[in-house]
Structure formats: C-alpha cells, structure tokens
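User: Sequence recovery, please. Input:
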C-alpha cells in the first residue's frame, strides 16, 4: 500500500501550493487537502445510495445512514459491515436479515446523494412531510456550562480539520459536557450519521446525551439527531426556520453559540415549546 493511499484513508492528501505574503513574496509550500470520495452504501450487496464523504469511519457512516433514513429500526439486526475500495471509490456493504428491512423506506432515497444537501436524498417533498414525527417525550435540561464545555472540547478533538481547515465535526456528549465520541467528515450530515453509527456500535443509542456540531442547524440535522436519545442539539451557527419547526414538532431543544468580545460565547436558545428559563442555569 502506498503512502498516498494511507494518507487518503486518514482523510487528507498533501498537495503543493504557492503562498503569497503581503509584501508580494511567493513561497512554495504544502497543504493537507480533505479527501472527498464517492461512497456506495449497499444492503445485502444491493446498491442503496451513493454519498460523497470522507473515507474514514465508513462502517459508522453506513450504520448511521440505515438508522437515520429509517431503513432499519434496530442496529442489533446488522450482522456485518464490510468496506472495500478501488480507485478512490468505496463500497460499504451492510448485511441485514431481509425481514428487518423496511421496504417502503428503501425507495425513499435516490441513488445519488452529496455531502451538502439533505433534500437531494428525497424523491419528493411529500416524502419529507410524511416522515414519522413524535414529540411525546421529556428532555432533561442541559446547562449553558455543559454546552460551552462540549464546544471547547470539540474544537481540540478535530485532527482532520486541524490539518485541512475544511471539514465538519459532530460530537456526542454526556450531560455534564464531557465529549464521548467525535466524528469528522466533509459533510455535516455525514459527520452526524457517523456519530449515530458509532453510538449504535456501542449500544448507546438509548443513553441520554446531547450533540454539538460545527455547522449551522438545518432541519436534516434535527431529524437525524432524533435517532439517538438526544436531549439537545447545539451548533456553531443558528438554525433555519424549518429546523425550528422540526425541533418544535419533535420536542428537541436547540442552542447555538453567539461570540462575545472579550467574553465567553453566549449560549442562545431558540423559542420553542421545549425552552424554559431554567435551562440557562450554569
């Protein structure tokens, strides 16, 4: 195996660059560029979907996609996950008993997805509107202090972004703000799917915790977050209007960080039926 292939499997490749300084000097240097590759996810050797993703933790990605897309209801039914690669293209085959697959969901995603837009995997808006939603649950409040602690910890646990400056990260955190697991990817949706897959591998999907992501909050992240026992979803950027609507419907508290000059960032919680004044207790 070549060094180039090993570096790709770490999610980055080194390329030569020219860097121009303010005084006009041009210097030769090198840069770690994030790798983005087609990843085909197959179910029992039948192609299901193709994503553009970072070629790391692909087993977690496949588990997470099958769960967040509701192809299966229980990660325990997965018997094996096998990854193969050829010419910078990867296939992840997930073996699942046929009776555990929801056939009506298999056709709900087109064969081609990408790393940036969650709607690309839905055939029609009607399918989005008919996705199952249930808000009959109670969330345990997550404090501002825990959210800040998790965000700080996440910033120091992104080895791929530290060298490429171009990938997203998602983290699953305990209620005190301790980070349990981090996953990185060129796509924010992929990073979250990897987290869901990692939790499934550890049989932790029912354990209470919260998510932090280095992105804006979109409706797809809200929906995917509900696959785990998520008590709160915190993002660097603010939510969209659709994300707020979904969060309210699914009873999922949302938070974002607002940078403050010469002070720690403010934790902003958005209006919904899930927010109370006591959540801001430190």
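Assistant: Recovered sequence (282 residues):
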């Amino acid at each position: 195996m070549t060094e180039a292939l090993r570096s790709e499997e770490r999610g980055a490749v080194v390329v030569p660059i020219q860097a121009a300084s303010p005084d006009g000097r041009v210097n030769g240097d090198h840069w770690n560029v994030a790798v983005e590759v087609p990843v085909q996810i197959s179910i029992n050797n039948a192609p299901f979907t193709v994503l553009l993703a970072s070629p790391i933790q692909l087993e977690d990605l496949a588990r997470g996609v099958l769960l967040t897309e509701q192809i299966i209801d229980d990660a325990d039914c997965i018997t094996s996950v096998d990854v193969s690669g050829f010419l910078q293209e990867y296939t992840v085959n997930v073996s699942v008993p046929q009776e555990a697959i929801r056939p009506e969901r298999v056709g709900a995603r087109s064969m081609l997805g990408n790393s940036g837009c969650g709607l690309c995997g839905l055939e029609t808006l009607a399918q989005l509107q008919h996705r199952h939603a249930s808000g009959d649950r109670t969330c345990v409040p997550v404090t501002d202090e825990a959210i800040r602690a998790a965000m700080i910890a996440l910033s120091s646990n992104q080895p791929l972004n530290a060298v490429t400056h171009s990938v997203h990260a998602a983290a699953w955190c305990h209620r005190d703000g301790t980070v349990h697991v981090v996953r990185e990817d060129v796509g924010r949706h992929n990073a979250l799917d990897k987290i869901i897959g990692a939790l499934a591998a550890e049989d932790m999907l029912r354990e209470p915790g919260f998510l932090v992501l280095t992105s804006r909050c979109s409706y797809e992240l809200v929906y995917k977050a509900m696959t785990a026992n998520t008590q709160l979803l915190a993002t660097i950027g603010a939510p969209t209007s659709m994300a707020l609507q979904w969060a309210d419907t699914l009873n999922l508290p949302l938070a974002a960080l607002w940078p403050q000059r010469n002070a720690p960032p403010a934790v902003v919680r958005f209006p919904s039926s899930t927010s109370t004044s006591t959540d801001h207790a430190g």
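Confidence is low (pLDDT under 50) at residues 1-8, 117-127.
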